Amino acid sequence: MTGRTRRRLRIGIDTGGTFTDVVALDEDTGEVTTTKTPSTPGDPARGFEAGVAKVLELLGASRPDIGALAHGTTVATNQLLEDRLDDLGLITTEGFEFMLEIARQSVPDGYGNSYFWVKPPRIVPVHRVRTVGGRLDHTGAELRPFDEESAVAAARWFRDRGIAAIGVCLLHSYADPVHELRMREVLRREHPDAVVSLSCEVLREYREYERAVTTLVDAAVKPAMTSYIGRLTERRAAERGTSEQASATMGTEGEAAGGRLHVMKSNGGVLSGEEVVHQPITTVLSGPAAGALGAAFVTQAAGRGSVITLDGGGTSTDVAVVLGGEPTLTTEGTIGRHPVKIPMIDIVTVGAGGGSVAWLSPEGTMKVGPRSAGADPGPLCYGRGGTEVTVTDAHAALGRIPPHLLGGEIPLDVEAARTGVEALAAKLGLSLERAATGILEISAWNQANAIRQITVKRGLDVRDYPLVAFGGSGPLLACRLLDILGLPAAVIPENPGNLSAFGLLTVDVKNDYVRTRVERDTALDLAAVSGVYAELERQAATALEREGFPPDRQQFVRSADLRYYGQAFEVRVAAPDGPLDDAFRNEVVRRFHDAHEGLYGYCYRDDPGRHPVEWVNLRVSGIGPITRPVLRERAPGGDAEPTGTRPVFYDDWADAPIYQRSKLGPGTVVEGPAVIEEFGSTLPLHPGFQARVDGHGNLVVTR
User: Fold this and answer.
1) Burial, 534: exposed, middle or buried (Cβ in 10 Å; 0-12, 13-18, 19+)?
2) Residue 304: other Cβ atoms inside 10 A
3) Confidence at 629, pLDDT banded by 50, 70, 90
4) Per-residue pLDDT tens for 61-89?
5) Strand order across the beta sheet in which 653-660 lies
6) If pLDDT is split at 50, 70 and 90, which confidence band does 378 have?
7) E strand or H helix that includes residue 217
8) What is the distance of C-alpha 335 from the center of its chain?
9) Residues near 576 by Cβ (< 8 Å), separated by ≥ 6?
């Protein structure tokens, strides 16, 4: 091995709409290397492979041991957001063929909009819904046997019409999956080419409409995700084989260069590529979840356990809340127009990224987003044929970003940006400066409204939480958000443009399991509840063993969904470990009262007779812990001198000092107006603000 460099690496790769971000962690030294490469929307796997090759070239690692590749993907997310859900079929219980047509009573923007609102097309039109005979009750008891003849007829109907993606959602299959499992056997026999998703495997929880839509979304994204992950795992396996052959030839030991592929899930965990193709719906918030986890990890190390996270990309901005070091979770999420009832980090997404387009409404007012110029052609300043003004163009026209991106790899055509903004300004009768500032102001308020939605709407006071701004465009409006929302501070982590990719290296393997069991607290059958939790933990243990975690490395986290009798929705609370006895039940109920009071301002703790508590869903998360990176404090020092000046417009044009972040050490304070630049992002520091470097290298921005 003389003359060869052997490094043990873990690599995180986050594929965004504009760039693919890559972070490599040297497991021996703790050294972190970051880079970016343009995304390839036509085939995201090409951008993935280019990112791996680029970071290995930067490291000079000719024969690396890649222990794992953690990947945040937007394949499923984009398919849902773009509503590419064609050629789907649904099989449901006889008499319930109009379940999707009826849907729910809710109307967007409240009932005042009900006269104008038109119900959007169903995820599966009614003529593609087939029914089968047979019926279970809510306990799983069979009222009518499964009708094999109608099941065969349904399978053949889909086969004859070439409909190959099918969701199966039979009434009360959460209580007993036997009828759905028999339907799958019929489909395998009669329509072997079909991609099938069963609701008992996707979401074993009551509420037929949400369960059906979630199952259909899983079936819709399964072909694309299976193909994409298949290409990546085959490539990884090929590289692993090459590495093992080379090691054998040289008489050395070592892990395969290909490494095991893990895919980020919406619930804040990862899962191997081999497993995630069987539950692709769990990846619908893959990339945004990684960003929230990375922000939680970095800020907790710096002593901030509760923060608001803002991940600004080229197409959109994702906002989440971290409480006590953990991002908040929800099972009431939506992707596009589709409800998706799987455990996911509670994230609000708004179309306010760097590529968001500024446009004029028919009334002549300026709007920004949600449409984006994307990576191709991109903003005007990219020089790739873009024809519309974007948020990035406004920043470039005001001098707030450098005339190049990624350390000079991508030069920007600032004059093209100015020309475009001037043309838009002329239509509005404004100066270039006022038009560009207006674009940024609208974008900042769009982001602020998303932050309010995830804080004030959840019963949180936005003024109590620092903002963690990251992503390529996240720090650009940080100062304005402090003013608009009254936030105490903004924290800009090191390498903010790559924080989502870094977050992938901090994530445990995680799977979630749920079972509906509706029962009054006063009549709770603790033995039956204990049996359900034990079964869920067995399922979790089996999955963790497939992921390579022996029993002594497996962790199980219980939770439960409770409500007051008569309520339509539940509140989830953590459930303690240990035996399920009266002390366990009392503790869960106490936590429910506390959580309900925190969310809604009241509870019925002292009135159990009139408002009894009802248990609804039992949940278990199976966790396989990984070894996380260690963020070390640094000694004070660094060069606080600017590297130059550039005309920048804040309140007026002035020569603002330009600082290179890599030269700013802990304890350094930069006063605005200024601009702090780094490889993957830029912080425009407005007049009246200052940025201080803390002991972990974060920039802390305050008034």
Assistant:
1) exposed
2) 21
3) confident
4) 666 678 778 898 877 777 776 677 778 99
5) 644-649, 653-660, 674-677, 682-685
6) confident
7) helix 208-250
8) 11
9) 558, 584, 587, 588
